[in-house]
Every structure is written in structure tokens, then in C-alpha cells.
Amino acid sequence: MRTKRVTFRHRWLPYLLVAPQIVITAVFFLWPASQAIYQSVLREDAFGLKTEFVGLANFERLFSDSAYLESFWTTIVFSALVAGLSMGIALVLAVMADRVIKSALVYRTVLIWPYAVAPAIAGVLWWFLFNPTIGIGAYAMGQLGYDWNHFQDGNDAMALIVIAAAWRQVSYNFLFFLAGLQAIPRSLIEAAAIDNAGPFKRFWSIQLPLLSPTVFFLLVVNVVYAFFETFGIVHATTGGGPGNETVILVYKVWRDAFEGLNLGSSAAQSVILMVIVIALTAIQFRYIERRVEY
Amino acid sequence: MVERRPVLNFVQHFVLILGAAIFAFPIYLAFVASTHTGIEVNRGLPLLPGDQFFQNYATVLGEGLSTAGAPPIGLMLMNSTIMAMAIALGKIAISLLSSFAIVYFKFPFRVLAFWTIFITLMLPVEVRILPTYEVVAQLGMLNSYAGLSIPLIASATATFLFRQFFMTVPEELTEAARIDGAGPMKFFRDILVPLSRTNLAALFVILFIYGWNQYLWPLLVTTDESYYTVVMGIKRMANAGDSLPEWHLIMATAILALLPPVIVILGMQRLFVRGLVEVEK
């Protein structure tokens, strides 16, 4: 790892400088993470009197537990929908904004701010909008002949949290797509236009391929977001319901630990989530190393 | 513009305006709901703002929702501000110092220190909920501002950003400082920090929003209502037992909860976009 060619020399100062960060990392990150791994191989009896080493039994139980597998599936569906929806909409908007260069900044301003809204607040806003008795969204659905009720219908509840999660993520994706589009040399587009390629042809054969690194990057970021940062949306609105239809993995870890008091299982779930997040981060970094500069 | 296509231009502006309108719609409705009485809202929401604006906002700021047992929003807003500021400033401070050490000093364990910091990137609170909670409980930090902020201020991204920026600072500056007899801390204070001003501001915007929008963590470490933050407190109101939720007050709270980060993001848009694109690089 590189340093500066010219460095300072001091016996204890560098240690003092890194100390605060290292201490906080050790106390609040490394220690809890190692505890999670440790607890994941233990089982505590119902009264918390006795713990015994059970090896990988907690994991085996998880993967034969239909509730956990269902939650896994729910999370995958949720992430795919959030990533697909928010990236699709953001791409359309970014392509539009990229063409109208003069007003691109204005549009950026009006599209950027949902990113600042907390996921939980976004959830509550949409929860209200689609409230079956007083929400305008639900009323409009009723007019269209669809009886919307996210308190009873699992699909409605899922659609609601997907919309709320995607809503604030579109802003983020839009920014990156717009930056990516504006980095494509105009001469390429102009050359294609001279060769008689229309706007759609140009999009498919020039802009989209050149945008693929951004697409891939955003895909990872969006999946990470949907997996790990959407606890607030679920907790503040559906609470996992109706039934267990919207119990995403992060919500289940929390519920099993703090309401179910099933420590071993919750710890094992934490470890599985850690593996997922480490894998996703590794993919992200590989991509960054390979990133094409142009 | 590559060529003139009036129809396409029209379609583009139309799509963008429609998109912006759909984006703003939930907020607009929330605002409308927050300016009516509860009875009006529960009867079916009007589409235009009413005349209860001052009444409702004064109620939530001063009294809160007594039925839900929630404290006044004024207090929650203050808690959120303290938490967001502590997280943003704390993260910036410790990452500035550690990246300075990692870039400008050669010392044993330097690489180890770097990797220790790096690993935090892979461990969001969500994946180690219970053990982190236990640590904070053992340290007696539940229901305190320290407990709300300190566990969240270790950040690999900020350290990376500063490291990357420090690597681009010309070596000549360091040489000149050394020739003039400046020690490391003087160099840090008088040259490095002033040079990092733009990065500091950009990072501040992102971290402030991050801190303000925390939900799970305040939920875990606060049981005492006087430490509730506004983002987590809103949930309390929406599930107010058997009584009908008081949507007009909940929506007023939602507006108040989302306003500060939105103002920050719009006011510092250029810095925010720059910071975001750089942090993620």
C-alpha cells in the first residue's frame, strides 16, 4: 500500500491518530461480529440458564425452516423488484434529461431530493397514500376496479414496500445514470446521427453499451440497499404482515432476536447476512478495479 | 442536442415533468393532510391545503401525540439534530485523523490498521444487531446521545475518501512545510485541512443525511422517550393502539422529519452530487 514519498517521522503520533477509529471499530464492529459468529454455534435453553455448543446445528435448522426460506425468497423478490423498478425508471428519466442539456440541471434538482427522505418516512408516506379507507391511491385503484387492501393482501403489501423503497432510490440511480451519460463523448453520438441512426438506435447501440459499467455498479448498490437498508420501511409500515408476507431477512433477524428471543438462530442469521454482504462488497470492488476509464 | 426533433423534445419534457410530479405527489398529499383537521382527513382527503396549518404544526411541535404517548416533536427534532451532527462531525474527525496517519506516516501495523478500518465497510448494523446492542448495553450507553451516535461513527468510506484525496496533494507542499520546520500537526492543521474543505463539506452533506435517517439503531438503543429521534418516533404514532390514527398530525410530523435533510440536499446540491459520485468511486 502506498504512502507519500515524503513522510513524517514520529514515534507515537501515528498510533494516537488512528486510535479513535481503531478503538471504535474494535468495540462496535469487530467484537460484536465475532460475538455473532460465536453465538451462532451455541444454543441457549428457554430460560437462558444453560448454553451448549451445537456446531452448525443452528444453520441446519435455519435451512430446513420453511419460514426462513420463505423470508429468503421474499427478500430476493423484493430486491429484484426494487432494483429493477428504480433503475428502469431512473434510466428513462436520465436519458430524457441528458438530451435536454440546457434544463438538465433543473430536472436534476426536482428529482434529487427524495433521496434525502428516510426509508421509514417514505414508507409512512406511501402507507398513507394507499390507505384502504382514506388513501387516494387506494381510491384510484378502486375506480380502476381493483380492491386495494395492504392489510389483508400480501401482494398489495409487497407492492407498497417496493414502491416506497424504489421511490427514494430512483434519485440516486438517476444521478449516476446522468453522470454516466454525460461522460459519453458527444462526438460518438453525433457521428452516429450523421450515419442516420435515430435516437432509439443510438441509445441501444451506443449509450446503453457504454453505460453498462454504471448499470452493473448500480445493480450491486441497489441490491445492497434493498437487502440491508430497508428495515425502516417494513418496520414502520407492514410490520412483516399480512401474515409473514413481507418479512425480509433483516426484519427477521431483528424480530427473532428482540421479540422471539431466539439468540442462536438470530446470530446464525446475522452470520449468513454477513456472508452475503461480504460477497456483494467483494463483487463491487472487483468491478471498481476493472472499471474502464474513458 | 444532436438534431432537431420537436416531437421528441416535447415527449422528453413531458416525461420528465410527469416524473417529477409523481415524485412530489406523496409529499404534496402529506402536506395537504397536515393542513386539515383530523375529521376532514378521515372523511376522505381533500386535494387542496386547508386552514389548519398553524394549528396542527403547533400541536405536534409543542405537545406531540398524547394518545400515542409520544413526546413533543420539537424534542425529537432536537434529538435528531444532535444525533445527525454528532455522527457527521464525529465520522469526519476520526477519518481525517486516521487517513492522515495512514498516508503521511510509515509505522508498523499501518497496513493492519488500514484493513481493520476497511472491514467496517462489510458490517452494517443490520447484520450484527443483537451483539452490538449487547455491547452498548454493557457500556451503559443505552438512552444517551453517546449511545445513539458513537457506535455509528466508524466509517470506512470517509477514511477512503480522505486517503484518496491526500494522495493527490502535491509532495512539494509537505517538503516545503518540513523545510520551514513545521511539525506534522502544524502541517495537518494549516495545510491539509484547509485544502480538504470542499471534500469536508461534501462529505458532511452525505453523512448528515445518513445520520438523520437512521431508524433501526435509535429503535434499539432508546427506550426513554426523551431520546427518541423523529424518524423512528413516527412509527409510534402510526400504530396508536385502537384509536384511529391521527393522520393530520402524523403527516405534519413526516413533513417536519423530512424537511431538514431535504433542505440540506437542495441547498448544497452541487457538493452533494460531487461527494456522492466520489465516495462511491
Automatic annotation (TrEMBL), chain A:
Residue ranges occupied by any ABC transmembrane type-1 domain in the UniProt entry: 72-284
Pfam families per record: BPD_transp_1
GO biological process: transmembrane transport
Quaternary organization: The complex is composed of two ATP-binding proteins (UgpC), two transmembrane proteins (UgpA and UgpE) and a solute-binding protein (UgpB).
Transmembrane segments: 12-31, 72-93, 105-129, 157-179, 210-228, 267-288
Keyword Acetylation: no
This protein's name: sn-glycerol-3-phosphate transport system permease protein UgpA
Native organism: Tranquillimonas alkanivorans
Keyword Transmembrane helix attributed: yes
Membrane topology recorded in Swiss-Prot or TrEMBL: Multi-pass membrane protein
Role of this protein: Part of the ABC transporter complex UgpBAEC involved in sn-glycerol-3-phosphate (G3P) import. Probably responsible for the translocation of the substrate across the membrane.
Main localization, broad class: membrane
GO CC terms: plasma membrane
Localisation per UniProt entry: Cell inner membrane; Cell membrane
Lineage of producing organism: Bacteria, Pseudomonadati, Pseudomonadota, Alphaproteobacteria, Rhodobacterales
The entry's keywords: Cell inner membrane, Cell membrane, Membrane, Transmembrane, Transmembrane helix, Transport
NCBIfam families: PRK10561.1
Family: Belongs to the binding-protein-dependent transport system permease family.
UniProtKB/TrEMBL annotation, chain B:
Keyword Cell membrane: yes
Keywords from the named record: Cell inner membrane, Cell membrane, Membrane, Transmembrane, Transmembrane helix, Transport
PROSITE patterns assigned: ABC_TM1
Single Gene Ontology BP annotation: transmembrane transport
SUPFAM superfamilies xrefs: MetI-like (SSF161098)
InterPro entries: MetI-like, MetI-like_sf
Record-annotated ABC transmembrane type-1 domain positions: 77-268
Function: Part of the ABC transporter complex UgpBAEC involved in sn-glycerol-3-phosphate (G3P) import. Probably responsible for the translocation of the substrate across the membrane.
Subunit structure comment from the entry: The complex is composed of two ATP-binding proteins (UgpC), two transmembrane proteins (UgpA and UgpE) and a solute-binding protein (UgpB).
Stated name of the protein: sn-glycerol-3-phosphate transport system permease protein UgpE
Organism name: Tranquillimonas alkanivorans
